[in-house]
Amino acid sequence: MQRFPVIKILDEHAAYQAAKTAGLIAAEMGFDMSSRLEIEVAISEICVNSFRYGKNGTAVFSIRNDGLIFEAVIEDTGKGIESISKATSIGYSSIATSLGMGLNAAKQNMDEFEIESIPGKGTKVSMRKFLPISNETVSYGVVSLGDERYEVNGDAYIIKEFDGDKVLLCVIDGLGQGEDARIISQTVQKIVEESYHLSLDRIIRKCDRALRVTNEITGAALGIALLTRDMVCWASVGDTFGQVLEQREGDVLNHILDGQRGVVGIFTLPKIKIKKLLLKGEYMIMLCTDGINEPLYTADFPLEKSAQSIANFIMNTHRSEYGDATVIVAKINGL
Length: 335
Description:
The protein has about 325 residues and is of the alpha+beta class. Helix content is about 30%, strand content about 35%. It has helices at about 10-30, 35-55, 85, 100-110, 180-195, 200-210, 305-320; strands at about 1-5, 5-10, 55-65, 70-75, 110-120, 120-130, 140-145, 155-160, 165-175, 220-225, 230-235, 240-250, 250-255, 275-280, 285-290, 325-330.
């Protein structure tokens, strides 16, 4: 980790200079202009707040994970924040003439945003921005179609890049079809999106607990894969499945990612098994809900085509007659 000298936030000019310094660091790391501006906006908003409402404000910038993560930690010894949830909501401000956009704008512009505050003692804001993964390194293809007998799709999916070198993929199948299934899958989708840094088994258990608090019988099937340069971790409950094709020394190896029986949110959740694949070459992963018939006959795949072309091919050739269907394809060439 590379850490830069502490910047004291003595006035608003110092706050804006801190933001400019952050932008220069981000430029050296390889962030594009749009991302650099987002970082500068976030830093300026928090540093100005630190000067206006606190005292002894400081900003420290760091480069983490071999140059893939920009981190900023801004602290003060001011009056603190009584309600963090209110302070980060759009439109809230303790100042009558303020638009109340500061904290929320900073949060929206960064990939991770955390506040620690003790009323009467001070506030600490930690923010991180991940260097985007290039299209040459990872490419994606997605098709998600609802059952034609219903107006809405009861499936959902997630593609989440983080830490500059990791990808979380998830396919979700809400129990049944139609609006009820859509609500279930979107509930699970939100939880997974908020919990991407947790282990796969903890993510699934968190989804299970959330669905059980409802008074209705609700459940979902989901499959989650964590991708790194040389490893795939897979966990699932219910009718989802996946396959990994690995190119190694001229051969193509086919790895099957089986699902576990059960339903998330109903009955007793089984002990979550995590399958780990150690990979040595380029690989392609495919995740599917039960609207896609398994197994996938990989000999028919147009492997030289794009990830989206392969996803389209799977949907066109392996889709069930009825039911919602979702397929995610990711081609990885060295994260």
